[in-house]
Amino acid sequence: MKSFRKLVRPYILWSLVLIVVPLILIVLYAVTTGGNRLVNIQFTLDNFKKIIEPIYLTVFSKSFQLGILTVVICLILGYTLAYVISRFNEKTQNILILFVTIPMWINTLLRTYAWISLLSDNGLINSLLQTLGFDSIPMMYTDFAVIVGLVSDLLPFMVIPIHTSLCKIDKSLIEAAQDLGANRFQTFWRVTFKMSIPGVLNGIIMTFLLSISTFVIPKLLGGGQYMLIGNLIENQFISIGDWNFGSAISLLLAAVILLAIRFMKKIDKDETEEE
Hints:
Blueprint: H1 2-30, E1 32-33, E2 42-43, H2 46-49, H3 54-86, H4 90-101, H5 108-119, H6 124-131, H7 143-168, H8 171-179, H9 184-195, H10 197-213, H11 216-221, H12 229-240, H13 243-274
Antiparallel strand pairs: 1-2
Helix pairs in contact: 1-13, 3-7, 3-10, 5-7, 7-10, 8-9, 10-13, 12-13
């Protein structure tokens, strides 16, 4: 027991330094005013009231719109891909899931620059179109470019939980549905899809939260004209220097993430109890 405690101590220390202390500072900045030096501070809730101003509500609205659109596209592509992968044998599934996760090993910034080289006016796609005799299509700094970047970056977060749920389905239930006269669509809708809903919900929550909080992809592919929640937080800390308001937004976003995580745990718990 003593040796175990000695092994745990470094992790506890790192957790305090990298998680607890920054979180305490964020909470402190969020409920105070007076700048980023914590001198002459005054406790206030004005930082949270500022969030409901029209200009910031527009940022939240745009973030939710792009987030929902990203979730819908990732859900369609991700479920299809996860379903196809689940039809193979276990060894092949592991290889295919590896291919899905390989892009996550590459830095997000590098992947985003790769999309810039593809979507820019002189990029590979437009060069190919011009070679085939078509006019070039302006794709950079549009909703399309931002959505493409978000979908390509977040698709694995939709595929993996759905694939996990599909693999947990008892094959005998599908065979029983077919023996009872259900066609392929009825079997899929009433058995396969219904039993994979926990994975679908987990994928939706993770994809949505990551899409509204990212700032690299909208900044580079949107040309700086897209101000989403992640960009707003970055702007408050780096450009404007309003750490108090930036902390208030960060704290609000952290609260949403914690509630979503609790919701996902409840889903997993209910699924385990049913099994």
